[in-house]
Amino acid sequence: MHEVISGLLGHDRVKAARQHIERTDEVTLARQAALSAIPAPTGAEAQRAARVAELFREAGLGDVRIDEAGNVSGWAHRDGGSGKGEGAAPPAPVVLSAHLDTVFGPDVDVSVERRGRRLEGPGISDNARGIAALVAVAEAVVAARVRTARPILFAATVGEEGSGDLRGVKHLLNGGRGKGEGGGGHTTTAPVAFIALDGAGMERIVHRALGSRRYHVTFRGPGGHSWAAFGVANPANAVGRATALLADVPTPHAPRTTCAVVRLGGGTGLNSIPQEAWLDLDLRSEDPKALAQLDVTVRAALARATDDENRRRAPATPPLGVEIQLLGDRPSGVTPRSHPLVQAAIAANRILGKDAELASASTDANVAIALGVPAIALGAGGKAGDAHLTSEWYENTEGALGIVRALLVTAAVAEVET
Questions:
Q1: Cα dihedral 305/307/308/310 (nearest 10)
Q2: How far apart are CA 27 and CA 8, in angstroms?
């Protein structure tokens, strides 16, 4: 892949696209700040989506639309323009994406301030940077009329963060099989590659999908006065028993697998045994089989906690019940290091003078990988910190270089023509 990326750097139209990215670096930075200042909580991304759709049209993409899930998409086709062409259906596309949503709720002030070299504001990097870079690549490809053997689908997705459970990219890919534009997906065939632009940075190449399952577990019992009804099965006790058992669940280091109780609650007063108590669980692994086995182990621990509390209840009192609600299911998997997509990213880093750090994370690429589509996630240049905090910041140090990397990797897998 080193020769491919090196050849792209000398290709006239790719060179023109790179120059466009570098020449409009300040425009991209201004767009990033403006997009970040548009609220986009998970599940309420419509205002930001509408603006991205406008930017896609202004960039010259074709068939720009907002789908039923709220994703924004637009095409750059074989001639680098917006026409679909005539005759046979186009070959399977390359998807370049970035997620629209942030972790911040509607009550958070998402305005952006410049402090010296820094832009500060909630979501300024994750993922206003990714969206701005997505638009910049689209604009450069169209402006330079980069011809590719495969069409490129640019997509801004909803629901990537937290409770969104990757619902936007799940809808976009729609299983990657034959539903066409009318069935929820936006391609008639599975993509040949999927690249997510997520946050800032240059070194990391995420090729391992960190899967997760998230549960809300509720224990329910008769409740009652803390003195008069003492002895009934106590949901709060069951939460405590479950938490202790889950803390002792063995988790392998290779593949790395984790089990964490992340929230718990219940009860109504200091003198009442609760009728209900609950805990939230976050299970993660890079390996689908390890995650599935952890799921079985966790369910057994929850059943044991329920049984242990019920065995201790007073005679003739009602037993405790448990309800396990799935809140999120993010698939895991890997695009092998040896795959041409990963190798293209490594080669691009090295040719641009940067180290390549192969990594694992939970991104929109998870869904593509689980569907058998080669996928990676890349930072979009620059430096950032305090992700998911209201003090989040971004510095545009070599910001354009990160967008150039995205251009080169996308062009490599879309197969630039002479």
A1: 120
A2: 24
Edge-to-edge strand ranges of the sheet holding 113-115: 113-115, 118-120, 393-395, 383-385
Tens-digit pLDDT profile for residues 327-378: 999 999 999 999 999 999 999 999 999 999 999 999 999 999 999 999 999 9
Distance from C-alpha of 234 to C-alpha of 272, rounded to nearest angstrom: 10
CA distances from 344 to 268, 282, 407 (A): 57, 33, 11
Q: List all residues 6 or more positions away from 326 whose beta carbon is below 8 Å from its beta carbon.
A: 213, 214, 215
Q: Could you tell me if 1 and 340 are in contact, meaning their C-beta atoms sit under 8 angstroms apart?
A: yes
Could you count the other beta carbons within 10 Å of the beta carbon of residue 267? 16
Instruction: Please list the residues that pair with 385 across neighbouring strands.
Output: 393
SS3 at position 304:
helix
Beta bridge partners of 384: 394
- The two tokens of residue 142 are 């169209």
Quick one: CA dihedral 74, 50, 396, 143, positive or negative?
A: positive
CB 396 within 8 A of CB 29: yes
Distance between CA atoms of residues 377 and 361, nearest Å: 9
Single-letter amino acid, residue 174: N
User: 178-197 pLDDT, tens per residue?
Assistant: 333 333 445 557 999 999 99
Question: What single DSSP character describes residue 281?
Answer: E
How is 112-175 classified by DSSP, letter by letter?
Answer: -EEETTEEESTTTTTTHHHHHHHHHHHHHHHHTT--BSS-EEEEEES--SGGGTTHHHHHHHGG
Residue ranges of domains in the chain, CATH in brackets: 2-210+332-414 (3.40.630.10), 211-330 (3.30.70.360)
Q: Residue count of the chain, please give it.
A: 418
